[in-house]
């Protein structure tokens, strides 16, 4: 077996395990939700004039479930180069996931079907903005499109300093400049006094500064732009 195929098989078995666990977690959430909804008072008899009011309240429950689920996606970003029609063009083949040398991307099951879509979480694992974009190159559809020469980088979101957690704020000195050193985009991290400032116009939201920040909790958070 070729080395590439060996890696691919390895990835497949890891993701198969992830899918299985995700299904189990999903089932557990459904059970908890069912228990919660079972505790909601039952409908009154049809002849009761208050019946209509209660019906309306019960109808609003599924909407709440959808809102809770979609909130989870607000913390995740689509891969680099995601086209406007990403969700109709992506087949869920996972080729971009297999191609990423930093194992940044992972599949997320859609809320309304069994299909999976690649995502990443820049607050947990940063995109390295690879110069040759292996994820985009691997996409056999037009779901991920190459960047134009005029476009330099993707825009996943923007970095925000959580001042109280920054080591320099805690020490009152200029002890750390890890975010400045790590940022791959020139002139994006500057220092005002001893605290970093992130240029919103050029920050990509890649998350490399978050990953490198030695403080705990992290002193930087990526605020994602809405993708869906
Ligand atoms: S640009 Fe590189 S690190 Fe980022 S998702 Fe694509 S392959 Fe992975
Ligand atoms: S400031 Fe942070 S998130 Fe923004 S481009 Fe630089 S490393 Fe990436
Ligand atoms: S890497 Fe973190 S602790 Fe260091 S200066 Fe930047 S925000 Fe502060």
TrEMBL record:
Give all residue intervals belonging to the 4Fe-4S ferredoxin-type domain: 80-110, 116-149, 194-225
KW 4Fe-4S (keyword) present: yes
Q: Where is the composition biased (Basic residues)?
A: 52-63
UniProt entry keywords in alphabetical sequence: 4Fe-4S, Electron transport, Iron, Iron-sulfur, Metal-binding, Transport
Region: Disordered, residue numbers: 35-63
Q: Does the keyword 4Fe-4S apply?
A: yes
Top-level lineage group:
Bacteria
- Give the Basic and acidic residues compositional bias ranges: 35-51
Q: Which Gene3D superfamilies match?
A: 3.30.70.20
Entry-linked InterPro entries: 4Fe4S_Fe-S-bd, 4Fe4S_Fe_S_CS, RnfB_subfamily
Q: Note the PANTHER family from the entry.
A: DIMETHYLSULFOXIDE REDUCTASE CHAIN B (PTHR42859:SF10), OXIDOREDUCTASE (PTHR42859)
Annotated protein name in UniProt? 4Fe-4S dicluster domain-containing protein
Q: Identify the species of origin.
A: Leptospira levettii
